[in-house]
Structure formats: C-alpha cells, structure tokens
Amino acid sequence: MIEVDITKRIKTYKGWEDLKVKTQFDMGKITRITGPSGVGKTTLLKIIAGLITPELGAIKFNGNTWFDAEKKFSKKIQDRKVGFVFQDYALFPNMTVEAHLAYGTKDQTYINELLELGEMENFRQHLPGQLSGGQQQRLAILRALSTKPVLLLMDESFSALDKELKGKLMTKLQALFLVQGTTVLVVTHHDEVFDQSSAIFRLED
Amino acid sequence: MDFEPIYLSLKLALITTAILLVIGIPVAYWLSGKSTMAKIILEALITMPLVLPPSVLGFYLLLAFSPNNGFGKWLHEHLNLQLVFSFEGLVFASIIYSLPFMISPVKSAFSHLPETLAQASYTMGKTRWQTFIYVLLPNIKASIYTAAVLTFAHTLGEFGVVLMIGGNIPGVTKVASIAIYDAVETMDYHAANQYALILFAITFAIVLAVFIFNKKAVKNPFE
User: Which regions form coiled coils (chain A) (predicted)?
Assistant: First the structure.
C-alpha cells in the first residue's frame, strides 16, 4: 500500500493554493489519476518520486517511510526505485536510444527485450532528435522501465501514440508489470489508458 | 623578429583557459541553481571585469599583490611567491580578468537545460555527480567550447591589466600586446606590424573556428 497524506503549496492559475492529498494506492496495481488541468496531478507524482518536497504530511511505501515532514525525513530520490515518464519526455539529447536504456541497466538481454516491447529495435543508434514524437514517448517509457522500478509514475505517457500502437503497447506493458510486480500511477486525461485493469483516483479542485 | 612575446602570450592564454575550465564549470553550475543573494553578489563581482576599466582592476590587483600589503605579504612570507612583475602574477590576474568569459556562457547553458533532464537521471538512481558528468556536461558541450575559445582569445589580447601587474620584462611578462605598444613607443612600426598581424591572424582563426564549430554542432535541441 502507498499511503499519501501531504499538503503542498502550489501556484495555480487562481494564485497560490494548497494541494491536499490523502489517499492510498494499491500495491502491484495500476491506478489512473485524473482531474482538471492545473489541479496538481504532475506535482503529486513528483512529490511521490521525491522531486518536490511537500510542506506537511507523510508518504509511506509498503510500510516504509519515504517522507515525513514532522521528522524532517525524506528518502533520497535515488533510493526510492521509482521510474518516471515525464510529460516532456526529458530524453537525453546526447544519448542514443540504446544508450538511454544502458544508462539504467547493464543487462543487454533486458535492453533487447525493452526495445522489442517498444518496437524500437531498428532505432538503436538514433538520437532523440532523429525520432518522431511517438518514438520519443515510447523511449521515455522504456527508459523508465530500464531500472525495473518498484513504482512507475507516468505523466500523460501515451498522448503522442496512435490508437493501435497505444493498445498494443499497453497490453505488453501490463504483462511486464505483472511479471515485475510493478505498482503504476498514471496521470491521464484519456479514458482508454489502462481502462480495463485500473483503479481511478480523481484529484479535485 | 623576437618570438618570445608571442610564445608568452600563447602560454598565458593556454594556462589561463585550462585553469578557468577547471574552476569555471563547477562555479557556473552552482550559479545556475536556485538564486540566492550570495549568488547574485558573486555573479555581479564575476561580471565586473567586463565593464571595469582594466587599469582599475590592474591597480587593485597591484595593491593586493604587493609584498608590502596583506595578501601579497602573506604569499611572499608563506609561499615565497611574488605575484607583482612575474608570470605567475599575470596568470592570476588573467584568471580574474577573464572569469566572465568562461562563466557567463556556461552558466547560461546550464540554466537553459530543462530541469527534468537531471530529474530523469536521479529517478534512474544516478547521483548528482553521475548526472553532471553523463547528462548535463555533454549537453552543453558547444557552450563550453565557445567559452574556452573566448577566454583564450580574450587573454591573448589583454593589455591594461598585464601592463599594470607585469610591466614589461622581456621573457617574463612582455607578452605580444605589450611588445606592440613597446615597438610603437620606440617608433619600430615594422616590429609592431609583425606582432599585430600575428595576433590578428591567431585571433581571427580562433573566432572563425568557433563559428564553424557552432554551425556544424548539433543545434540546441531545447530551442
């Protein structure tokens, strides 16, 4: 169980507001996080990853404290073993497709599996600048998986993919999550993203 | 023609650039982070040589390096180092004088990298150091080359500060720009022309190389 009970002051289009979240996410499951634009969905993912520090509250992952404002404790980002698929992809312009994955794992067999999963075997030596938007998005997903994270945080990670590819990729990903026991939180505006197998958490204003 | 001043100029520019690369990149990285009052003050100080008359900087460095005053006295007594009228003094002064040429472009390049780049690396378990070496530095390579070349070219053309700190000692502090001044003073326009032409050619070649490199380099993927 991921227990989140935090308050973070965030800047919205209305001005400064408190993002208050108190919820639990099931382990080994996919949860879709939905809600209106600007409500703080990305901020919530970044708080869970340790990239943003909330003012108040605590986060527990499977009983282990990841963050506790009262005790002034925050587990290092590097030690949380999360994978993060950024909305802007955040690909490294200096690294080829294969180098992106090798940055996360030295296991060449796993790298090949990921490339196959994302249908990117023929783009191993391509730099991000040489890829289409959809290919870049797939690479961002594969890179996040390269470290075999216990928790995968996905921020609008299928928006650049066509319907057919999206469906195929989601099926393959679900199989991988099952094997690796990955817990997944997906921020999305699209109803078709992991629609059959996921729980929904709606973040309200 | 005496090539010693040209050799001294090149040696000074090379040493200054090498030292500034080592000092400047970490300082630029630190400055590109979250803004604080200390960083703003330091950045203003680093930028000062761009607008300050070289004679003003040279005068204060001369006072600071003097073996009769605090810092210079300490250097002389503890390290047996005399910076006034010495090549070491020129290097020290050049580092201060060329600081903005190294730090400003590199700091600007670091600031323009999206913050998610480093964040992505951290979530992959990489440390700040690994992220710096494998992700951040390679993606500002073009700016580092530009900064290094500008620093080199700027040091090559130094005059005011060099004259104040080093004077005109042949083989020690008489760099090419001083040799030109010296030759003109003694009406030896032929020698002045030779030195000036060589400096012009070297500087032009360097600046041209930067333009060619920047044209060939991969365009900034973040723009």
Answer: none
